[in-house]
Amino acid sequence: MNILYISISGNTRAFAKKLAEYAANQHELNPQLPEITLKEIHENSDFQQESEPFFTFVPTYLDGGNGLDNGDTEILTETMREYLEYEDNHTLCLGVVGSGNKNFNNQYCLTAKQYASQFGFPFLADYELRGTPADVERVYQKLVETANQ
To answer: Where would you tag: which of 15, 40, 89, 92 has the fewest CB atoms within 10 A of its CB?
Structure first.
């Protein structure tokens, strides 16, 4: 399974690496379970047309608004949105996983929810900050289920 992610503070990167390690361990126990390939997208990334299905992981960084009725502006993660738009990469995305801080209330994981709405792929799961071991297991299971549909 392929995961494209953007990480500003390092939380998404840390979670993605824990997820890839977990997947490798699961694959070792059961070779029918998939491993994970990670690809970090950042400001200096060369955009390329994706050729295989992938999942997107995105943190939430917004300016303004309350997540309900008075708008907000995506900041710091726009490069991922642009990457998904490039050559219609979003058509290969199987779903998005969001992260953030639950103190953001209605803005928690709002960027991932907005991506799902804009691009038409499902919002699959969420986790807070760097996630917990239970989050890693839960998200991996959701990715496997979705990939096998």
So the answer is: 40
